[in-house]
Specification:
Layout: E1 2-4, H1 22-41, E2 44-50, H2 57-70, E3 76-82, H3 91-104, E4 112-116, H4 117-131, E5 137-142, E6 156-160, H5 165-175, E7 181-186, H6 190-202, E8 211-216, H7 220-228, E9 234-238, H8 252-262, E10 267-269, E11 280-283, H9 286-301, E12 318-322, H10 323-328, E13 341-343, H11 349-379, H12 381-401, E14 405-410, E15 416-419, H13 421-427, H14 431-435, H15 439-442, H16 448-459, E16 466-473, E17 479-490, E18 496-505, H17 507-521, H18 531-548, E19 552-559, H19 562-569, H20 571-586, E20 594-599, E21 602-607, H21 612-628, E22 630-633, E23 636-639, E24 642-649, H22 656-672, E25 678-680, H23 686-695, H24 697-706, E26 710-719, E27 727-735, E28 741-742, H25 748-753, H26 757-774, H27 776-781, E29 784-789, H28 791-795, H29 799-810, E30 817-822, H30 823-828, H31 830-841, E31 846-852, E32 869-872, H32 874-877, H33 884-899, E33 903-906, H34 912-921, E34 925-926, E35 935-936, H35 937-943, H36 948-955
Parallel strand pairs: 1-3, 2-3, 2-4, 4-5, 5-6, 7-8, 7-9, 9-10, 12-13, 24-25, 27-29, 29-30, 30-31, 31-32, 32-33, 33-34
Antiparallel strand pairs: 11-12, 14-15, 14-18, 16-17, 17-18, 19-21, 19-24, 20-21, 22-23, 26-27, 26-34, 26-35, 27-28
Helix pairs in contact: 2-9, 3-4, 19-20, 22-23, 26-29
């Protein structure tokens, strides 16, 4: 049985094998790994959702019942959660729980849910479809159950609570026939209101004999005073009193103890609270509730349908009494109802003293055995004395040659009485020198206080021995770390005459431990604090800010040119640049601040006791310093810039997750606004709101990919020399839940930002290749189809293999496909892009450089890019008729492309006038709404198997 409360623990197992049996052990481990994988795959996951908190008596009883069933199951894993709704239960709190469970179990498949008490069930009825759709629920501990409560909800069953108010009152009056008044104690909670309703419902049955007084939601002092003044012919009936009018939550033990001790008359109950001062009651057993719900869940997990498990509405009740409370009020067992359970009942005399009786008998037997053995051992005493002499001789040899330091030390003076060679070697003194010294003389001053406290505990017999790690001062002045074990030798005066000290040199191990500790919290490349340590310090700062009412700040730094340095000069250069920037930043931050490398080219600064204005000044200085810094490597010189996001930490800061998210978002806003700038987070920030809107696209895009809700469009690219070279560019559209077509501008920026663009690229390639393979006539008569590739796809390790596989599986010829990559993506990934293009060109593929002129705009890079087409950015083309600068730009790009043997394609061709001017300049192809609008690709394919109509469309 595996169960989890809040955390998931991971174990790493390793084995070093230097024997000849290594292969056998490896084979066994492989078999065990295979077996463990099978077991893990069959593991069933059960979520237990408790309405109240751990430690609440009723909830703990239910959990005992659940564990009694589930702990025996090897294939069930429990995830236990406590909603703590006795403390707070408003709508905002439930929404927080919803968000928590959505995040916590987003990657966990839950097979069944066990809910305890009404609040947990109501929460699941409202939010199960959002959290755990179609997961069955087995409830227990439900008050006031009605079949209509779960009407319309499928896969729900369980066991309800049953309370017998009339039976409990009748039992009370049977034990106390002279009773005139029953005082009902309750609070204002939902459960207490239910119990009071049960009592009020049956009160008329006893109206001719007793009266009922209801003490509802009184303060503890007021309640205690009232109960202290009750007459002798009264009884107290405790229902639920777990929350005071001031909102203070109190335990069942404390509540029942308050009521029973404040009153001089017996206290009874309807709930499971016997044992804390209550005499007894006719109660529902919480462990039985949990046990039945767990058994139902287990049956379902083992294949039994839910239809075979109707809701259990009449569970058995039991009479339970506390022996100590019965004794207090003179209640005898024979007067109790039949089959009553009595707790805290003492054992009989024999049960109480039987161990003493058997101890005496055993002692007599031992004494007889000792007498017999003494006769035997007296005869062998002379042999034992001789053996003792030999043993002492062996001890002296062991003492002198021991691999650890051993010394006999005077308990009063701390002087060394006897000492072996190893002890002397550890501290560098001779034996004669050590015998003239004391322990404090060779102990590091900072460890003397620790030594004094340990020795005091030893001499006061608080401990029998102690073992500590401490520092000795070597004769040469260096520090020696040792592990010291001290044991006292007691004399007849009950005082230690001396003690034995055993020491082992652990200096090397201590240094290694310190080194490992430093490595665990610091970045190996820069020596700065790492992300884990940075987050620990930030969490501590956030936890104290509400109490201290201070201000702090967190800055997120992203180096803008890191990838350019890596791609141009290699990773060694990139590492050196990060080290130099780390040193620059270290010289700027204050001593109390924390500078950390968070990963890659990202840094973080945690500024303690720092107002937002001070933080802005400091981060501005850091940014200016980075901007003025020039990184030089093997003849290359780079101007470095950084984008920064700054977030204040105040008493309103909720948690570390929000701080890091907001800092990251602010940094990316700085990037979006042109890089090399600082953006300060504000809750009502418009730029951040836009970024948050993009973040919401993540789940929508993932869902669209899972549900295949994309479609392909095609836009013609026509030759301007009236040739018949026919080709199309494939474009993607998203189909929303209502069938509406979403243009790419609505989702592609978010996809690129959040690393989903490669999945979309794969979808486009897969479906384009499939449709082309299904329409060979169309494929044969066109020149080629253009497919866009993102910059992320260029650098993805497996994308090249994926494309080659698509060619192999569909049989499409490489010369029918042209891949379009943007100028910026190609230049920023120049080495990777060149390899990528060269590999696919060997298959016959074409390549076009898209949006040329809008990015880095360096013609020099074209020499290193074996592309076939230059697509001139539409921002220059659309105004070519009216703007002479745009005309000159288009002409220049076209001429350079032609000289390099590349054909040119103009985008955004919206009318015949633009088309004519492009023809005059010598541009080869045109694309735009003036040529042909994008149309559904499948409609284009299905229009005709004859490509002639397609040619007419392209030439319009």
């Amino acid at each position: 049985m595996v169960y989890q409360l809040e955390f998931v623990y991971q174990m790493e197992v390793g084995m070093q094998n230097k024997s000849k049996l290594g292969p056998v052990f490896i084979f066994i481990l492989l078999l065990l790994g295979s077996w463990s994988s099978t077991v893990y795959a069959e593991m069933k996951r059960v979520l237990v959702l408790n309405s109240y908190s751990e430690g609440y008596n009723w909830t703990d009883g239910i959990m005992d019942g659940i564990h009694s069933v589930m702990d025996e199951q090897q294939d069930v894993e429990l995830f236990i959660n406590y909603m703590d709704t006795k403390r707070v239960s408003d709508n905002d709190y439930y929404l927080q729980l919803l968000n928590l469970y959505q995040h916590k179990y987003r990657f966990q498949k839950i097979d069944a849910i066990i809910s305890t008490d009404n609040n947990a069930l109501n929460f699941l009825l409202k939010y199960r479809d959002e959290l755990f759709p179609d997961v069955p629920v087995f409830f227990n501990g439900i008050n006031d159950y009605q079949p209509s409560d779960i009407e319309g909800h499928k896969l729900i069953t369980g066991i309800t609570e049953t309370y017998d108010a009339a039976g409990t009152i009748d039992m009370m009056l049977g034990l106390h026939p002279t009773t005139k008044e029953i005082v009902v104690v309750s609070d204002a909670t939902t459960t207490a209101s239910l119990f009071r309703g049960l009592i009020e419902h049956v009160a008329h049955l006893f109206s001719d004999q007793i009266t009922f007084t209801y003490l509802t939601n009184l303060g503890k002092d007021e309640l205690s005073t009232f109960l202290n003044n009750l007459p002798n012919d009264a009884l107290v009936l405790w229902t639920v009193y777990a929350r005071t009018p001031e909102g203070e939550s109190i335990s069942i033990r404390e509540s029942v103890g308050l009521v029973s001790t404040s009153s001089n008359v017996p206290t009874y109950t309807l709930a499971d609270s016997v044992g804390f001062g209550v005499v007894g009651g006719k109660i529902t057993n919480p462990a039985y509730q949990g046990e039945v719900a767990a058994q139902m869940a287990l049956k379902y997990l083992h294949g039994e349908p839910l239809a075979n498990m109707p809701v259990i509405t009449n569970p058995p009740l039991e009479y339970r009494f506390d022996f100590n409370a019965m004794q207090r009020f003179g209640i005898v067992e024979k007067d109790l109802p039949l089959n009553s359970q009595i707790i805290n009942k003492p054992f009989s005399t024999y049960e109480t003293y039987k161990w003493k009786i058997w101890s005496i008998i055993a002692s007599i037997l031992v004494l007889v055995s000792i007498i017999i053995m003494l006769v035997y051992y007296i005869k062998k005493r002379s042999l034992a004395e001789e053996a003792l002499t030999q043993s002492e001789h062996k001890f002296r040899i062991i003492f002198e040659q021991a691999a650890v330091g051993v010394a006999q030390i005077d308990s009063k003076t701390g002087e060394f009485v006897k000492i072996n060679k190893k002890y002397c070697d550890i501290v560098g003194y001779t034996e004669a020198e050590m015998l003239a010294l004391t322990v404090p003389k060779i102990t590091h001053p900072d460890d003397l206080h620790q030594d004094f406290n340990n020795m005091e505990q030893l001499f006061n017999r608080e401990v029998t021995e102690f073992s500590i790690a401490k520092r000795y001062l070597h004769k040469n002045g260096t520090i020696v770390w040792v592990n010291l074990n001290v044991s006292p030798m007691w004399d007849d005066s009950e005082e230690p005459s001396y003690y034995v000290g055993v020491v082992e040199d652990i200096t090397d191990a201590h240094k290694l431990s310190e080194q490992l500790s430093h490595q665990a919290s610091h970045d190996a490349l820069t020596g700065l604090v790492n992300r884990r340590e940075f987050e620990l310090r930030a969490e501590h700062l956030i936890s104290t800010v509400r109490k201290d009412r201070d201000e702090h700040a967190l800055c997120f730094i992203d180096i803008d040119q890191f990838k350019v340095v890596n791609d141009t000069c290699g990773h060694i250069a990139g590492d050196e640049m990060l080290r130099q920037i780390s040193k620059l930043l270290q010289d700027l931050v204050r001593q109390r601040d924390t500078l950390a490398r968070l990963g890659g080219d990202e840094f973080g600064v945690l500024m303690k006791h720092c107002s937002l204005e001070q933080a802005q000044h400091l981060t501005t200085v850091m940014q200016k310093t980075i901007q003025d810094y020039h990184f030089v490597w093997e003849g290359y010189s780079f101007n470095i810039e950084a984008s920064m996001g700054l977030v204040p930490i105040t008493k309103l800061t909720p948690n570390l997750t929000e701080v890091l998210k907001n800092a990251d978002a602010a940094c990316y806003v700085a990037k979006d606004m042109g890089r090399n700038r600082l953006h300060v987070y504000h809750p009502d920030d418009a730029e951040l709101a836009q970024r948050q809107g993009q973040i919401q696209w993540i789940s929508r895009l993932n869902q669209a990919l899972e549900e295949d809700r994309f479609c392909l469009y095609a836009q013609p690219i026509v030759p301007l020399d009236d040739s018949n070279s026919i080709h199309y560019e494939i474009l993607i559209r998203k189909v929303d839940e209502n069938g509406k077509i979403i243009p790419p501008g609505g989702f592609l920026p978010a996809a690129e930002r959040y690393n989903l663009i490669t999945q979309i690229d794969r979808w486009v390639i897969t479906n384009t290749f499939r449709l082309l393979a299904e329409n060979p006539d169309f494929l044969e008569q066109i020149h080629f189809i253009s497919i866009n590739l993102s910059g992320q796809s260029l650098t993805e390790q497996n994308m090249l293999d994926f494309i080659v596989t698509q060619f192999n599986e569909t049989g499409i010829s490489g010369d029918k496909i042209c891949f379009e990559i943007t100028e910026t993506a190609a230049i920023l990934n120049l080495s990777t892009a060149t390899t990528f293009i060269s590999t696919l060109k060997k298959l016959g593929c074409w390549f076009a450089l898209d949006d040329f002129g809008s990015g880095l705009s360096s013609f020099a890079y074209l020499k290193n890019l074996p592309v076939d087409y230059l697509k001139i950015d539409g921002m220059f083309v659309k105004d070519i008729v009216d703007d002479p600068i745009d005309h000159a730009m288009v002409k220049s790009i076209n001429e350079i492309g032609q000289v390099m043997g590349m054909q040119t394609i103009a985008e955004f061709v919206e009318n015949d006038e633009i088309k004519g001017m492009l023809r005059e300049i010598g541009v080869n192809f045109a694309q735009g709404y003036g040529i042909g609008k994008p149309q559904p690709f499948e409609e284009l394919l299905s229009r005709s198997h004859n490509v002639t109509p397609i040619k007419k469309i392209k030439s319009q």
